[in-house]
């Protein structure tokens, strides 16, 4: 199309490529690194005289003047001085002002949501302030920016290059009984001893009720979190008897190192005396307050998104475009499909923003493109999904754009808005890849639609099935329709289930209304819809135990970017 190069210039392709590098971790800038943030609070006020707060901290980051939730800590019951075990992992850019907001909430409900909570205060700062000071302590501000007596401390640490995990499982025998009318309710805390002598909470097990010989659930933790990659770093392990009032009774403690823990891999089961120093001084024949046993130790090699891409994994990019009548007559300037001579429509903007990034990871540059809801010549009937693949474009995403523009005068917009058949079609190809048990192809389906779908039940069923496959689904809502019902497909607000009640195995859907990015750059849209894809790729292959193919044969000198 003669008008399209002008549109490409207006879309600022350089911004899109910059977004791709930042989003997928391919940025060549030495200024980018990952930072771990740990949080603790002190002096939280009680809600009332009868109960202590159940605190949770929500981390938000500012983008385009709005605050978006990044992650949140666990909820600690009945605590006024919580030390959270949750570690926030964020990217640090030296050249950007990254504004953060920490919100402290008192979570009273069982589902840990934020609707029925008490807001206890917030602290705003920049990531640069935290990393430059390494430990930042500030008072929390209440509603109206009045200073409270509560404070929050954020500690930062640059993430080392060791991304391996270790899976650990502990149990105990003959722990001291701290309860009069029942047995102790023990839980275990593991602290990493830092260079300055302070301790950072690594993991807190669940509480095993009424049991002096508990078996705690196994857990996974990165070696960086556990010991900063230093196998000789001291680890302090403490056992408590849980009490509902938050005043947990100390049972005992011991110290070890990851190096010592690893001896379990050599076939020797490690165990430690759980010592209460006060009893050790007072009681002559005191031996211990129980024994803690390491039941299981396993090293888990964690591969990154780049490991799989550099190992030969291809991103198979598929597009589906809504040609239902609700878009309006393409010949009318009010139509969402109207081709303006100088300004691309929303379909083109979304297609180019996402497609320009994905095409770089697809070696054959063959993009299956489906249309749905159109009446197709010569008989102008709505066809089934096998007949709906209107192009398979070669060369680049611009080939898709040109084919899209060329087809509009030849079809009639109709309906309905059914997307389940398209998800099932791509899932069929992903299923074939799954059975190879190799990391060679991962499928991304981009669906562009102007309204709420009419086959929601079938779509939920298709997504639950696809969650078991090497596949992700990106849905961009075009136009000004009410897309609130579409948010349920994105698992961020809860677990999506099929009509039969089966939950998704993993969150594979990202839904974004284009109107939220109408006045932003295409880079912002691309970053939003593709932000979860690298983790989705890694989570799928790691869960299946599938390693990158030919990674050991990869020539380091051929890397196009540095992670």
TrEMBL record:
GO biological process, any: cellular response to calcium ion
CC per GO annotation: plasma membrane
Keywords: Calcium, Metal-binding, Repeat
Species in which this protein is naturally found: Oncorhynchus tshawytscha (Chinook salmon)
Family: Belongs to the copine family.
UniProt xrefs under PROSITE patterns: C2
Claim: Metal-binding is one of the keywords in the record: yes
Full protein name: C2 domain-containing protein
Gene3D superfamilies linked: C2 domain
Domain C2: 12-140, 146-273
Region forming the signal peptide: none
Entry GO MF terms: calcium-dependent phospholipid binding; metal ion binding
Membrane-crossing segments per the record: none
